[in-house]
Specification:
Structural class: mainly alpha
Number of strands: 0
Shape: flat
Largest sheet: none
Strand content: under 5%
Order of helices and strands: HHHHH
Number of helices: 5
Oligomer: single chain
Radius of gyration: 18 Å
């Protein structure tokens, strides 16, 4: 929703001549990837709410000495490594990219 509002508001100042739906025709952006992006975004938001704040807030709290924030960040970075090493390789093999 934010992308649509930003596009409509900033369009008069842009040299881009296309419409908003043309942005959805990006190579590699299929329905499957949009569903995965949506699920990832919902999961990221849900777990951030359950943890008590976004990762930026968790970094600040961890720097202040909060042990629960440090554990959150440990899991956060372990998840990032897991995604890069295992999940991304699996998705690339499924969608035949690379």
């Amino acid at each position: 929703m934010g992308a649509l509002v930003g596009f409509v508001v900033l369009r008069p100042f842009s040299p881009y001549e296309g419409d908003f739906l043309a942005l959805l025709k990006t190579p590699g952006l299929t329905l499957d990837t949009m569903i995965l992006i949506f699920i990832g975004g919902i999961g990221f938001g849900l777990f951030s709410v359950l943890a008590g704040g976004c990762p930026t807030k968790q970094h600040v709290a961890a720097a202040s000495g909060s042990k629960t924030s440090m554990l959150y960040l440990l899991g956060f970075y372990a998840g990032l490594i897991w995604f890069q090493v295992v999940v991304l390789a699996y998705l690339l093999s499924i969608f035949g990219v690379g």
